[in-house]
Amino acid sequence: MVSFYKPATVKKARSTRRTVTVDSWDMLGQGVCTEQQPVLFVEGALPGETVEVTVHKQQKRVAYGSVHRIIKKSEARRQPLCPVADQCGGCQLQHVDAQQALSFRQQALTEYWHKQLGVADLPWAPPIVSEPQGYRRKGRLAVDARHDKDFKLGYRKANGKDVMDIDACPILVPALSSLIAPLKRVLAAHRDRRYIGHVGVMAGDNVTVISLRMTRASTPAFDAALIGFAIKHQTNIQLELSDGIKRLHQCAPLTCETEPGLFLRPEPDDFIQVNKSVNQRMIQQAMDWLNPLPAEKIADWFSGLGNFSLSLAQRGAEVFAAEGVAQMVHRAKDNALKQSIDGIHWAHLDLGCADSAEQALQHGFHKILLDPSRDGAQVVCEALARHRVKAILYVSCNPSTLTRDARCLLASGYSIAKVGLVEMFPQTRHLEVMMLFTDKNNA
Fold first, then answer.
1. What 3-state DSSP class applies to 193?
2. Catalytic residue among 88, 381, 397, 408, which?
3. Is residue 256 flagged as an active site residue?
């Protein structure tokens, strides 16, 4: 019998508004009001506040809205540090005290995991916290070049595609933020601006890089202007073209330190943790929790450029690093060898393939570190339910897929030994979690 999927009916909210009292936050930083039926999620509301809400959509069991007016304000509410925070699509939680926001979200995750995983007492570690501004070392700026006299360079507006023009950004590291206004002046003066898809910016420990994604080849005059800008501001600058990268000016290869004496050299499109100080503390916590020992076989899966692999190998472990992007595997291996680190076995591997995961686990690992994308590591966790290891450290950027994968591991006999929040992107909905699983029968 054929079964057809019928999506849930979504009703447009009436123009009338509701006045509600917010009970709690969910893990995305939305206010939750359970006195309403259906349960109401309120963008911009804090626990304990009484607010007038405009409801945007309603389903059978849940409804969604945003704050129209605050009647009773929470003591945790703060004035946003950025003047365009209410328009920008980047930082959604600048209206709440950062420490209180983490507390609200940890409580939300505790309740969520109690329901979803049946875990009563979670072994919470202190969160890894960040400075509220000047932390982001990588970003992407949108371009609007449709109007000759109104060139815009900035971020997409919240809930829309329009570009919000900016001259600086308090979230970017100062070395990047200070480049926005002068770069915009250079781009606005040339017709080649019409062929810019977006502008990527990245800051290393030694130099900054600006990368322009172009939809067609640039003119010599445009290249010359960009080179002049790069020399004046001592930055690397390059064009991303359909047939490869065109480096216009390079002061030095960009370097990002992970631990003292260890570094990565990412290209603009490579994944790299955007918050340097938080990343370094996350690596240190990973080493403390996983406790790599000399001669242990440890897998670092979804390894990227080797953010964790280098540190594991430095402590004497035999590391098996697997990554799904071939170019990153090549660069990671080359970078490790330049640092005289040869205890890592690098592999280009599709960890979403059950056969690949099963075959890789034949190495007989003692411990495994997982740092997947938002999709999680379902196939790997299903394989680990059959191939037991002493410890699994799961670094997650999506609590929902972590929950799914944790359910699999817990059902197979692993237990949660430690869990902690990682504030990689303060004042945003994005939340990272580190969770350590151990097998008491494989100590």
1. helix
2. 397
3. no
- Confidence tier at 58 by pLDDT (50, 70, 90): confident
Per DSSP, helices labelled H in 68-206 are 98-117, 174-177, 180-188
pLDDT at 50: 96
Predicted local distance difference test score (pLDDT) of residue 307 = 98
* Cβ neighbours of 244 (radius 10 Å): 8
**Separation between Cα atoms, residue 307 and residue 284, nearest integer Å:** 11
Domain 7-77 has CATH 1.10.10.10: no
CB 82 within 8 A of CB 170: yes
State which amino acid sits at residue 62: V
* pLDDT given for residue 14 in this prediction: 54
**Fold match between 7-77 and 115-129+275-442?**
no
pLDDT surpasses 80 at 270: yes
Q: What is the CATH number of domain 115-129+275-442?
A: 3.40.50.150
Q: Which residues contact 146 (CB under 8 A, 6 or more apart)?
A: none
130-145 burial, b at 16+ Cβ within 10 Å, e below that, comes to bebbbbbbbbebbbbb
Those residues with Cβ within 8 angstroms of residue 2's Cβ, 6 or more apart along the chain or in another chain: none
- Residue among 419, 373, 426 at smallest CA distance from 392: 419
Residue range 138-249 in CATH 2.40.50.1070? yes
Distance from C-alpha of 421 to C-alpha of 396, rounded to nearest angstrom: 10
Question: Backbone phi, then psi, for 371, in 5-degree steps?
Answer: -135, 70
Question: What's the pLDDT at 245?
Answer: 93
pLDDT of residue 46: 96
16 pLDDT tier (thresholds 50, 70, 90): low
Token pair belonging to 92: 């959604």
**Using CA atoms, how far apart are residues 396 and 390, in angstroms rounded to an integer?**
19
